[in-house]
Write a structure and sequence with these properties.
Blueprint lengths: L20 E6 L1 H9 L7 E7 L2 E9 L12 E7 L8 E5 L9 H11 L7 E8 L2 E10 L3 H5 L5 E7 L23 E5 L2 H16 L2 H7 L6 H14 L9 E6 L5 E5 L27 H7 L2 H17 L3 H19 L9 H28 L1
Parallel strand pairs: 1-6
Antiparallel strand pairs: 1-2, 2-3, 3-4, 4-5, 5-7, 6-7, 8-9, 8-10, 10-11
Helix pairs in contact: 6-8, 8-10, 9-10
């Protein structure tokens, strides 16, 4: 019998912890230019004041489909000073289609708890040119500084920017790729690193089963990959297998590992904020690399053991409920001044229960699938 879902005791209580206020200033003419061409990636200058410290920045809208929303998300790059709190850039996400506003943060904390290298996230309040813009989620950028701040030397960082980053020779339209690194954007790394990525993808698709088992461990940290795969499967990020990740190679292992990114469409909701059935994503996920790895009995056994442990310990109501309650409580008082979300406070208050019900149902589904897997 599965765990009973309890209503959070703190969901409608005010949390005394205030969120930091970030004051963003963009000259009116530059803000108008951004609004006139939301798809432009050319930044404008501005300033961001945090804790009474004024920072000169470059800023532009971020994301793909989210640029169409009324509440914009921002990519901020510091240039005077060039770094702030060890970062040269941050992302300010509006979380516009997530009625809970916590799914990104909740996902990253969950991934971290199961041993996956993960960006930090925290809720803040944004004021733009003196006008309340409401609650945002600050997301840490995955770049050279991300690894430097963790005492790691990085060789390469590739962003999976669309569904072509599927570890396959076939693109998202089921046609042969004209480039093996299609779907990736080079964030950091030399041409040699790009050739290594191409080699890795080529071998993933062309080696025999026996060859693959011996060779893949020279390219990928399989244990870490399986942890990431289990995290995507649990949180049910439908795009997460071929998109929404960073592929990185560090000096300490010399192997590729995967970091999650953009996890607002999770915990039972899709990219439009609509309910997604708890059994929508299968237990093995989907992409070519996962299929080949799970075809090896030893790797498959390790995945089953790992996923079973996560379902018993981290992906549970007992483990996640305090985190959900804490985030909900911190954000709620500030939602009342959010011009885009204050009329949806009822939906916001229903989300903790919704997420917990998803955890209960998804956990039971995956436990049942494990017995057959």
């Amino acid at each position: 019998m599965g765990p009973t879902v309890h209503l959070l005791q703190g969901v409608i209580h005010v949390n005394e912890t205030n969120l930091q206020t970030y004051k963003l200033f963009i000259r009116p003419q530059d803000l108008s230019a951004l609004k006139e061409n939301i798809w432009s990636d050319d930044p404008v200058t501005g300033s961001l004041t945090i804790n009474n410290k004024k920072l000169d920045i470059d800023v532009v809208y971020r994301g793909s489909h989210i640029r169409k929303f009324k509440k914009k998300s921002y990519h901020v790059q510091f240039y005077k000073p060039k770094t702030y709190r060890g970062a040269t850039e941050i992302h300010l996400n509006a979380e516009y289609k997530d009625p809970s506003l916590i799914r990104n943060k909740l996902s990253f904390d969950f991934f971290s708890s199961i041993g996956v290298l993960t960006p930090k996230a925290k809720p803040v309040v944004l004021v733009l040119n003196g006008r309340q813009e409401g609650v945002y989620m600050e997301l840490e950028a995955v770049d050279e500084n991300y690894f430097k701040n963790r005492g790691l030397t990085i060789h390469s960082i590739f962003y999976a920017v669309d569904g072509d980053a599927n570890f396959s020779l076939i693109n998202d339209d089921r046609k042969p790729k004209n480039s093996l690194d299609l779907g990736y954007e080079v964030k950091y790394g030399t041409e040699e690193e790009q050739l290594l990525l191409n080699e890795f993808i080529f071998k993933t698709n062309t080696l025999t089963k026996a060859e693959f088992e011996k060779e893949i461990i020279k390219y990928v940290d399989v244990d870490k990959y399986l942890k990431w795969l289990a995290g995507v499967v649990c949180t049910q990020n439908y795009d997460g297998f071929v998109h929404n990740y960073a592929l990185c190679r560090t000096e300490n292992t010399g192997l590729f590992e995967v970091l999650p990114w953009d996890y607002d469409a999770t915990w039972g909701r899709d990219v439009h904020g609509k309910e997604m059935d708890y059994n929508y994503v299968r237990i093995e996920g989907f992409n070519t690399l996962s299929a080949r790895i799970l075809d090896i009995s030893n790797f498959r056994s390790n995945y089953c053991s790992l996923l079973n442990d996560i379902l018993e310990n981290q992906f549970t109501i007992e483990f996640m409920e305090p985190k959900i309650a804490d985030l909900h409580g911190k954000i709620r008082p500030h939602l009342l001044t959010d011009p885009y979300k204050r009329d949806y406070i009822k939906n916001f208050d229903e989300e903790p229960q919704f997420i917990m019900q998803f955890i209960k149902d998804r956990n039971a589904f995956l436990q049942a699938e494990l017995k057959k897997f």
